[in-house]
Design brief:
304 residues, alpha/beta, 8-stranded parallel barrel
Length: 304
């Protein structure tokens, strides 16, 4: 059943997993995990992901996902770079969009975000809006922010931003980062005290964590055992994730963990089946590992 993120947040305890997807294998892995856990799920895709799939394939896959998923599903545009890209996503049937102008000055961020909210209200569209305040470091698809340019979310500014834009959820910067290298020697600690202040100032507005992957060392080791060179990779700890959920985080974005799990299974499968040319067998092995990772995350986020 297609739902907005706002609807899912209001009816579900804990936080909801928001998984990035790119093709049939990733979509099926996420859908199967959600069905297994009997928990709603957010399938999100970036603008580069849409370009990769192409509109016809994307629309077909969205229809297929709704048919095979037995729990509420939200389709979400991740890091929409413009008002036009958000409108396009809405026209494709997305039930949630993110307008990301976090790199702009505050006034511009408010202006662009409010335009998306106003467009949805004007046309009476049942679509949720997410925006971001603060800037995360790291690399993800079209986003590349150096650590020195990362800016944590200001709780007082968050209050004004929420009030003036009318958004349904707010992505905050409290120490997470995009990509596999969130820390060079250890996992970074999240600024939970800052999160508590943001939650209080925004009066219970659902908060979002981007760049929240845990970066499994087991999967990293398998990747490296079979030819990868992934070094200094540390993710967000489960304890910090649980603490964040206790203080207002309702949506947690996971992309890197799925990619690493997929690549670990694929690299191992290629090595152990080096005489096989059955692509389906290899992709099934990768998809199965991705499903396992998704199940682990969904269960982790399912807490009070």
């Amino acid at each position: 059943m297609l739902s907005t993120t706002k609807e899912i947040f209001s009816s579900t305890r804990g936080a909801i997993a928001a998984f990035n997807w790119y093709n049939m294998e990733t979509a099926k892995a996420i859908s199967t995990a959600a069905n297994e856990c009997k928990r709603p799920v957010i399938l999100q895709i970036s603008e580069s992901g849409i370009r990769y799939m192409g509109i016809p394939c994307l629309k077909g896959m969205m229809s297929a996902i709704l048919e095979i998923t037995k729990v509420p599903v939200a389709f979400h545009l991740d890091h929409g770079s413009s008002i036009e890209s958000c409108i396009q996503a809405i026209s494709l049937g997305f039930s949630s969009v993110m307008i990301d102008k976090s790199h702009e000055q505050l006034e511009k961020n408010i202006e662009y975000t409010k335009q998306v909210v106003d467009y949805i209200k004007k046309h009476n569209i049942n679509t949720s809006v997410e925006a971001e305040l603060g800037t995360l470091a790291g690399i993800e698809d079209d986003i590349n922010v150096d650590a020195k340019d990362a800016v944590y979310t200001n709780p007082d500014v968050a209050k004004r931003f929420a009030e003036e834009t009318g958004i349904d959820s707010l992505a905050v910067a409290i120490g997470t980062s995009h990509g596999a290298r969130k820390g060079k020697t250890k996992s970074p600690k999240l600024d939970i005290n800052r999160l508590i202040e943001i939650h209080k100032n925004t009066q219970g507005l659902p908060l979002v964590l981007h760049g929240a992957s845990g970066v499994s060392h087991d999967d990293i080791n398998i990747c490296n055992m079979y030819g990868a060179k992934i070094e200094n990779a540390f993710g967000i700890t489960d304890d910090d994730i649980r603490a964040a959920i206790q203080h207002g985080v309702k949506k947690i974005n996971i992309d890197t963990d799925l990619r690493i799990g997929y690549m670990a299974a694929l690299r191992k499968g290629l090595h152990e089946n080096n005489s096989s040319i059955d692509v389906r067998k290899l992709l099934t092995m990768s998809s199965d590992r991705m499903r396992e990772v998704a199940v682990e995350k969904i269960k982790l986020f399912d807490c009070n």
